Predict the structure.
Amino acid sequence: MKSGPLAYLLLAAGILVLATTPLYADNYVVRTAAIVAMYGALATSWNFIGGFTGYPSFSTAAFFGLGCYVGAICQRAGVPMIAAWLIATLMVGVFAALLGAIILRLRGHYFAIGSIAVVEVCRLVVSSWSSLTGGGDGLNLPLLHWPPEELMRFFLFVMLGILVLSLIATFLVDRARLGFGLRCIHQNEDAAAMVGIDTTRYKVAAYTLSAIFCAAAGAAYASWTGYIDPTESFQILMTVKVPVMAMLGGAGTLAGPFLGAAAFVLLEEVFWANFLDWNRAILGVVIVLLVFFLPGGLLSLHLRRRAKSGGAA
Amino acid sequence: MAIYSQILANGLMLGALYACLAVGFSLVWGVLNVINMLHGSFIILGGYLTYFAWHAWGIHPIVMLPVVGALLFALGFALQKLVINRVVSAPVLTTLTLTFGLDMILYNVMTYWFTATPRRVTLDLGAVSLGPVTLPVDRLFGTALALALTLLLYAVMRGSNIGRAIVAVRMDRSAAELMGIRTERIYAITFGIGALMAGVAGVVFASIFPITTNVTGTYLGKAFVVCVVGGLGSVPGALVGGLVLGLVESLAGHWFGPQQAITAGFALMLIILLTRPTGLVGVRGYE
């Protein structure tokens, strides 16, 4: 799917707004900006497997949670923070490649169920392996003794960095042979295999790409909050929320997942602040409306209007 | 050996409950090709209705069974007719997301009205001993009820016109339409039956275990596992899947500790998914 100039403009404007929040807004806004950037990175990485390849992957939370834990365990062992993030990214990337080689043989509903089960198995293993992970008590990370504003600003730029890297990766994949092959698989996997695309290798590449940015974001998130536990790190809610964000913006586009994540997080903040008892139901309503009225995402609104005016002319 | 006969008994009792819990989910997945994320919440809704009827008006769970079944059938039928039917042939990402969104709404409504406090109907029926095996009577009763309900569904699917129409739609939607079956209506009825079975499973569960909205995800997870292990969309599949899962969980709980029981269930599911995607008793081509 092609992104028009408007999408690029919105993307650049969005990143600019997020990056400049520390200049004019208070810590709460900067924190929200960092969360937007984080979910933007998660949704953009999901896009590789879900948007390009069309596989209904619900394993985002597994990669995020494993990233949290690998990063935390490394940091507690004395590895410097940034190095711990890199190790987490690398290890989860290898894990995703191996796992992908196994579960990407499944299709459709079976793949969806299998990918959700991966999240559950990871959560259960982490919460029962107490000697390494602290079990249900969670893990504390070395505290960063920085002033709160500085801490927030630092993690805002870290999350923005991960987001930008995931966008660059999307941009490159989109223009490369890999992106073309993934879109072929999306349309018809058997035909793609027939014309000589190594579907397994392509799918594993997409799955791994979808994992590494989640792992980096997870490891950074762990350092940011200073405490992680299994329920918080491996949330089924997150694993469905991220694809919803990508679809809200427009799955398979460059800018869509980030814009969807921004819209979703802002909606969520508004609902949390104003309708504490009902925020979950309201998000549910948003999802239902999205499925019915915006199946192509927010970006398709613009395309649809353009198509309509083009047809009239 | 005494300990193993107890484990076997526990596993089989648990397995019958799992079969009843999952059979509606399996039917919906098999016939509609929809992964119904609402299933866990339907079970808890059935459980809560039972609890409050018992607590407030002293109505026995057995009396509530048909009432809950009818209410849940109506809810499921309406949901499918008005909402899910519009996207029923869309890819799994769409339908799964839609039912997840609906689940968020139902979950929120239940937590708001009922709060998340664990509740159960305490019938206090004591326990019976059969040689080395001790069985709590309420659980034994629940197991029998769960089995009876599952078999009743089997009889309905096999013997009634509606059941045969559902099987026909499952086998070939277009051919069924040509034979004059109104598939949209069959979809709504099937989803209604799925909700009904979840509701009556909730009645049974509320009489045995404490229930709270926090366990909707756990029950949904059980339904996933039973479905994949046994094979999709058939009553015997759910029965086999349920019993196997019950036994595996009991044994794993005994060998590796209760925490590992759930992990063993999911591990079993992943292995079956990869080695035998049709499930243990599924038919090839129906996956």
Summary: Chain A has one domain: 5-312. The two ends of chain A are 23 Å apart (CA to CA). The longest strand of chain A covers residues 139-140. The beta strands of chain A are 139-140, 227-228.
